[in-house]
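ARCHIVE CARD
CATEGORY: sequence design from structure
SOURCE FIELD: tokenized fold
FIELD CONTENT:
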């Protein structure tokens, strides 16, 4: 029996911005980051279910607040996922290959 399980709207996940080591144009990447984190640049991503970490971010009308979303979604802990990724992939591949 799994305790505390109930229907949810979805699973939370994080998105990250990064510049790879030895990128040929790191300053161009920094300019791009600045743009997509601006009000104008984040408009294409400002859809239902996407939230930004900026303290100035206003949730669009009709969208649930971040606090409401936290109550109806499961949170994925990145460190746990990283630590257990290989075992989960092995289980998946074993079952995929045997069926």
């Amino acid at each position: 029996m799994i305790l505390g399980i109930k229907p949810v709207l979805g699973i939370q996940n994080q998105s990250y911005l990064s510049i790879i080591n030895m990128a040929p144009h790191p300053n161009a990447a920094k300019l791009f980051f600045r743009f997509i984190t601006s009000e104008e640049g984040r408009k294409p991503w400002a859809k239902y279910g996407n939230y930004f970490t900026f303290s100035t971010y206003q949730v669009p009308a009709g969208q649930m607040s971040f606090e409401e979303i936290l109550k109806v979604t499961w949170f994925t802990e990145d460190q746990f996922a990283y630590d257990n990724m290989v075992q989960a992939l092995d289980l998946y591949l074993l079952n995929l290959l045997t069926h």
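CARD ANNOTATION: The helical segments are 26-36, 66-71, 78-98. Residues 78-98 form the longest helix (21 residues).
SHELF: design records, drawer C
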